Amino acid sequence: MIADEFQRLTAAASERMAEMERFRALLTEANAVMNLVGPDSLPDFWNRHAWDSAQLLDRAGLARTWADLGAGAGFPGLVLAILSKGKAGAHVWLIDSLQKRCRFLQAVVDELALPATVVWGRAEEQALKVDVVTARAVAPMEKLLGYAQPYLSRGAQGLFLKGEKAETELREAAKSWHVEADLSVSRSDPRGRIVAIRSLRSRGQQQRG
Disulfide engineering: 77 pairs with which of 17, 22, 94, 134, CB 3.0-4.6 Å? Predict the structure, then answer.
């Protein structure tokens, strides 16, 4: 995939595409000195990272506020913030426990004037109410559900980007969680899955909304 195809798929305005290009440049520069993404994946930025992230917007309906857990290099959070820029009420919280990653995220947010807040801390400890909680390449589903549960209990929709082991991870997670989820094939890679959480409760606890 090239930038033109990404723009066609997302209907991104030229201003948003310029910001995506600048994000790509900043990521490439930062990745030379810190391990944000696998360097071999950068040539496939538009499909593997950008489109993989952007596809969540079609799944989120009218959602405007997001929490990206373990935001890392900014996927999907920075992509969502760029494509949501200018939309009323849009905001993305980028949460990461590693300070150096937060510094990178903040640099991009500042330079592009994005509707986003960088939070340095543990995902499960943040008292945020958002429309959607998301994550990519953070942890196996069993742990990820623990990180996301506080957001889900406050009414968030859960949309998680996972790889080809998503079904196996959900089976493992079922040992600790009563979880109902829908899986759909990723539009960026047929081996990937988008996991949409319909309900979640820890085994032995009363279900919370």
Answer: 94
Half-sphere exposure of 43 (CA within 13 A, CB side): 1
For position 205, what pLDDT does the model report? 58
pTM of the full structure: 0.93
The CA distance from 150 to 38, in Å, is 30
